[in-house]
Amino acid sequence: MGDSKRVVYWVRRLSELAMLGWLGMMWLIDLALAYSIGGVQWLVPVCGAVGTAAVVLRRRHRLRGFCVMLATSFCASLAIGGTGLAGVPGMAETGSLLILLIGALRHVEPVRRAAALACAGLVVLMSESIGRDYNSSGLVFSFLLFAAWSMAAGVGGYLRFQQERRVEAVHSVRRAERLELARELHDLVAHYITGIVVQAQAARTVARTSPEAVTPALDAIAAAGSEALTSMRRMVTVLRAEDDPSRKPGVTLADLRMLTEKFSSDGPKVAFEIGQGIDDRTLPPEVITTLHRVLQEALTNVRKHASRSAWVEADLRRHAKVVTLRVRNFGAASDPRVARLGGGFGLVGMAERVEALGGRLYAGPSPEGAWEVIAEFALP
């Protein structure tokens, strides 16, 4: 998975260089045309240089760069058309406008502002064809520029649609994780309250016959109540669904070990180690449940994206007031047949669940070249 990220990084870098290379070649053509036509046609390479600079700086100054480019191109068209001299639209200038148009439609918020910029881009492109009517070829230029604008607007609109779908999917996953977390924490608190009621009834029963047994019972009730309150304080703003899913008071460390053993039976071998000072009593129940969820998702990702891994290393350790779960896989890159299907939202759900309990999640390549998932929780 780390190799895939590096490949994507270099593909993006090379695509950026190729795009700038094409703009540079078109700018040289604009220079040749300006030398051949002369006069105010020299404004066209200036517009191309401004457009290329706006493309280079588009990630930091997207809106400002696009507006400057629109104003520069429109003023150049007015100047060339006002003199009545021959002129042609600039290739680098037009290419820069189209690239900036795609970026504006994809990223500018709100969408009505992006649509207004797209319409302004169409006006500027049409002004190029009208103001630079070289040998009565304005109609041809108008058709070509309108076709180019339509393609760029279509690409930008499609990319924005895909981005909106991605954002909505991420939000849906986060809402689902919060609801699931709310159900689990609700069940844990209900489990503790049930224990408190049972212990209170037992204390009332033995109070008459064995008064000395009441104090330990009250201590147990106070401890259970404190743990229940801790779980409730950890609950963030979540809403509980009206459905009736299966109930369970939580998981134990034994369930984590059983999960790794089951994974090892039909997948890469997992070496799972639990460090000293960690047991079911030292970890809050909601933390154990979340650790189980993170371990399950990490192993699922190994099966989906790196099924040819030689082995998987998982360990749960405690460092002072912090407990850390780390899962690493070695010996294989991601399966290309699976990688082509695209990524899911498992990491988003894990991060949402971990952060809801005040923890931190890291997923990425390790210095040794392995892919690792690390979840950290602060202990009370």
What level of helicity do the residues show? Answer: 55-70%
Residue runs with pLDDT of under 50 for 5 or more positions: 236-249, 333-344
**Measured on Cα atoms, how large is the radius of gyration?**
31 Å
| Element pattern in H and E | HHHHHHHHEHEEHHEE
Q: How far is the first residue's CA from the last residue's CA?
A: 35 Å
Strand order of the largest sheet: 1-2-3-5-4
Number of strands: 5
Q: Would you kindly provide a written description of the structure presented here, covering whatever features stand out?
A:
The protein has 380 residues and is α+β, with helices and mostly antiparallel strands. Helices cover 66% and strands 10% of the residues. It has a five-stranded mixed β-sheet.
SSE layout and pairing:
Blueprint: H1 2-37, H2 43-56, H3 62-83, H4 91-107, H5 111-131, H6 138-207, H7 214-234, H8 253-265, E1 269-274, H9 285-305, E2 311-319, E3 322-330, H10 336-339, H11 346-356, E4 360-365, E5 371-378
Parallel strand pairs: 1-2
Antiparallel strand pairs: 2-3, 3-5, 4-5
Essential attributes:
11 helices; alpha+beta; single chain; 380 residues; five-stranded mixed sheet
Nutshell version of this structure?
66% of the residues lie in helices and 10% in strands. The protein is an alpha+beta fold and 380 residues long.
